[in-house]
Amino acid sequence: MEEDHEVDDGSGITKAMSAYHHYSKHASALIKEELIKEGKDSSLGVIVSVVSAKWRTLAPEEKSKFEKLAAEDKDRYNKECAIRDEEVLRQQEERRKAHAVGAETETRMRHST
């Protein structure tokens, strides 16, 4: 079950997925195949219910694999956000310097007489 991931504020940065989301992505296709083989309803609602129930009963050792993936994904997201934030600050500083009082300009102030 391939899902589109949310993108943060139009910045192009994909938001970090939770451990459950990683598990759901991993298990959904397998569960759908099982349901089809058993001749049971394989609609999205049923698949989500089964995934959710299996997640709640998943052994801590098995959950830790998905928790590790979530932690790595969160680190990636935080790094990408930090890089974006540094770039935004750099651009703001450039604009501030360009518009600072006393900055060189091509126009002259007119004196009223």
Automatic annotation (TrEMBL):
Protein name per the record: HMG box domain-containing protein
Ranges in a coiled coil: none
Database matches in PROSITE patterns: HMG_BOX_2
Organism name: Spumella elongata
Residue spans binding DNA: 13-85
Annotated HMG box domain residues: 13-85
Origin: domain of life: Eukaryota
Single GO MF annotation: DNA binding
UniProtKB keywords: DNA-binding, Nucleus
Organism taxonomic ancestry: Eukaryota, Sar, Stramenopiles, Ochrophyta, Chrysophyceae
GO annotations of cellular component type: nucleus
Keyword DNA-binding among record annotations: yes
Chain residue ranges for the region called Disordered: 92-113
